[in-house]
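FAQ: What does the model actually see?

It sees only this:
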Amino acid sequence: MIKDNQKVFNRLMVIIDAAITAASFMLAYFFKFYILNNGPGIGVLPVVEYFRLLWVIIPLYVLLYYICSIYAPKRTVRIRFEVYGIIKANFIGIMALIIILFMIVRELNYSRSVIAFFYFFNVGFTSAFRIFLRKSLRTIRKQGYNLKHILLVGYSRAAEEYIDRLMDNPQWGYVACGILDDHIPAGTLYKGVKVLGRLGNLEIILPENKLDEVAITLSLKDYDYLESVVSICEKSGVHTKFIPDYNSLIPSKPYTEDLMGLPVVNIRYVPLTNTGNIMMKRVVDIMGSLAGILITSPIMLIAAILIKITSPGPVIFKQERVGLHNKAFFMYKFRSMAMQSPKEEKKAWTVRDDPRVTGVGKILRRTSLDELPQLFNILKGDMSLVGPRPERPGWVEKFREEIPRYMVRHQVRPGLTGWAQVSGLRGDTSIRKRIEYDLYYIENWTLGFDIKIILMTFITGFINKNAY
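And it is asked to produce this:
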């Protein structure tokens, strides 16, 4: 089995990657000079000079693949992250090759086209091979081969969530063999995984069973046993992982600090508290809102005229919302409802077939065009292009008491669109689910993530089936 020969498998992967790299470079040479041209021609370096570079390129690329974690275990890692690592390693490699050839060695006769073709060929062939390999291995695991057997130590919420994920993803090839716990009776089942006995049985089970891994899933009240459990596992030599039972308190990717050898885990890491990130996002917001206002100004003008001639009242509807650092601001929208008293306005969300919504308002809400005036909120600095949608003060007071970590979303500017919205959580949908998506966005923010959400908004975000 592959798991029993992992070192051999890893060495084979290195050899295959080296072969693909060499083949990609040779193909780039022949593609440039024999497919796009009728031979190398006069003044072109001989082929042997190009192929000598492989003595530098192959070790360099294998090293970069190692640094970029291409050879790390990938059972639970999504394919796109592996492809991203391949792209990153190849980009660094091509930059290093250019610096070596044209700035250090100063050999200017090497073809830039060959180097460019090499980059694309190598990324393409290496990614294609890895995708094929990953899909093949996952198919084999789904059929019950190349499995890893895991013993869970401790029955807790973390244990149940871990089992849930293993059950939902058979392609990972993990099998939970059982659970040890001092409080749950032996024989108790959770989704077919049995409680085998007490924690004290660990010293007996480890020598007798061929376990691949031990997952420590102790509940918070049993953390006094953690040190002894780790010690027993390390003596047995079995690979051990720790799944904490406080994932409701810390993010999935906690920010840690080294305080002179003392590890410190920050309960919440928000990338947008970094000054550089704040400035970068604000520049994008200003440029994006200005561009949006210019592009959509004809649509906004038509919408304003239709609202004015079909329903008495102002064109723009202003409503108090809670924004960054819990500060209130007035959010702008095109008015889509008949005029009503502030008391009526505050009493509830809109529902299906709400009589307060006008004919033009239905179209505006359904297409999200009623949100366009918020481009001016973004330009003012009240909002951002991307972020959690802002709520009214009354709902904020209600949700902060009912939903854990709700107020974390006010550590960033609210957005015109967001991760929850492009994921289908708009209008009359689960508020708790929306908060989960908002918190994921806040804790995993990158400029690339913002761009992805904006693109998804253009592709899927304008028609809102949950908007009434």
